[in-house]
Design a protein that fits this description.
This protein has 168 residues and is an alpha/beta fold. The chain is 27% helix and 20% strand. α1 packs parallel to α2.
Length: 168
Amino acid sequence: MKRTLLMIRHAKSSWANPLQSDFERPLNERGQHDAPLMGRRLQQAGIVPSVIISSTARRTRETAEHIAAATGYDPGAIKWEEKLYHCIPSVFEELIYELNDNLKTVVIIAHNPGITEFVNQLSPEFFTGNMPTCGIVGAQFEAASWEEFPTVKRKVFLFDYPRNEHDS
């Protein structure tokens, strides 16, 4: 079965309140614009999430809700994972390993630096120095089970972000 993994970094967050905890930082105006924009790009590309899994930090929750609404995914069905908050790449691998095999297209929304490190391990043909805010990296592979993820050949087919050249 062809499987698709989409890794999304949360949209731009607000630093307006210096006393606010990192975990509770909301999206800023640009983030509120970019998250639905990127969701629409996924929808226009015909990418329909089977599941959206997000960090529980406020900026990732808001990003996930915008992406879900724009792609037609029920925001009430988003899976919230505390362990995605500033996690290391192995946490993404553990989460993928545990996915239900009925899922075809999985979206994970998380944070830097772990998300950049993880996407750079997806394929030897892909590298980014920094995953942009609300950036999306998509990889596809053939596998009977998500458990095969660490050992299968993956192809990065998508790298998009709000300020990509086609948005000028």
